[in-house]
Task: structure prediction
Amino acid sequence: MKRYVLGEHELDTIKKEAEKIENQVCQIIRDPSEVQELAFKLAWLTENEILGLFSTSNAFHRQERMGILPKLQQLKKNNDKLRIRILTPFDDHIDSVSKKMKDELTLTS
Result:
């Protein structure tokens, strides 16, 4: 069994990193539009892929009503290498939205 003894410098570095983690603040955002706006700002920073997960078809429909689909289309138009993937339970309306989005995105690419 090998043992590793930390030097004083390494121990100080680990302590400083632990303090940084302890001092981080977690903020709960309760306003759905604020959450969506934050997600959209983060999406603008992505270069490769956006993965969306909706636990229910109603969750997808709520986001659709809030205007997420045009925003995703805008992101795709600005970055043709961007992959957008959405995982959601399926219903007839989601099927039609999916086909429409695929058609529109392949026509503009």
Q: What stands out?
A: The beta strands are 49-53, 83-87. Residues 55 and 84 are 17 Å apart (CA to CA). The chain has one domain: 31-108.
